[in-house]
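Incident log entry.

Two folding requests arrived from the same account within the same minute. Monitoring flagged them as a possible duplicate submission, but the sequences differ. Recording both here for audit purposes.

Request one:
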Amino acid sequence: MCKISKSVDVHAIKERLEQIIAELPNVEEKVRATLVDDERYISVTAVIGNKVLCINFMQSREEE
């Protein structure tokens, strides 16, 4: 069953990220992944076993 939640608080987002971390398998070998990090953008794209992880975190505008 699919559940969609809108207008959640930051606590709910942190819980979801922790849930994702807990489900990632522990593997010793390198996996197919790309990590991007600059001052306004962080991205993770990875294939780990039969799981695909995609996270994009970016500034929506310049801070004043």
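Request two (distinct sequence, not a duplicate):
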Amino acid sequence: MDLGKKLNIEWEKVLLVWNWSYKNMWDELILLWTIKLLQEQDKKIYISAYNPGWLKKFLGQFVDVENIEFLREIPKWFRSFWKFIRDKNSRTLKKYKEVDSIIIGGGEILTEEVPSTYWYWLVSIFPCLKQKPNIYLMWWIQVPKKDRNKKLFDYLMKRVKYVYARDLESVYELKKYGFEGAEFFMDTSYFAFDWKRLEQDKLKRWRYIVINVNKNGEDFLDDIIKDIKYYLEEWYKVLYVPVAKWRNDEYSDMNYYRRIKKECKMDDRFEILDREDDFEKFATKISKAEIVISTRLHLFLISNFLWTRTKVYPYQKKILKMQEVVRNLE
């Protein structure tokens, strides 16, 4: 497995499109190393973001952000429409029209497991299409089976120059579809942090476990609570990581923190482990945990990069795919 590859992005002004700044930890780490790769190539970087101010502050912990253009994302729903209107959209659209290359990347780019993705990303880059930019896709690609999605997929793929997929199955599917310009490229989050700096402590475990549950993994909640109760009986503490912080309580990871605490009735041994302000402190905590139990791919991968034992409840195929990639790394 070749991990030393470089992104081959043509032209100079590159727009990065995904759900950036939705406070989703793994997406932010993917974005971080992609930025570093592009900065090494002296690219002018534009980032489409839900919350440009917050994202700029977060990334400022790791890279020079002064020459990066943080743009308000093109609205797809009412949520982002009003923000876009307030954010001087005429100036924003002008900036979108400056770009000559686009990278759509971050997670499930095109998959029928997530409704509407096949038109969602077309809307995201619509202001740029008149300039006929180079379009690159990064990460999960699924050739659709539904007729409507097939039409949208065909329309997009005719404009795609190259695909960097973080699993081999996506590469095989694309070649079977007839698209030859695809290759495996390791998830860039793997390089975003110097995980090896914490390697010296990997055998020293502290008496706490790390937990995360999200909306998509709710079906596993009863099993996870059983796991937690086992460790509480052994006098472990529980550190809960809110990987995604949605304002909507239904989709906020904090919703499950409150539900688990109530079920376990052990308030004094539950704490929040945040990763937003000091990522190195967060990574150190993960590296010393007895075990990480999660429904999220994000936390599963960080734990593996830090040699911490994991138990993952896979609610989506992407988790099973990435488990295979991690096995190959090992």
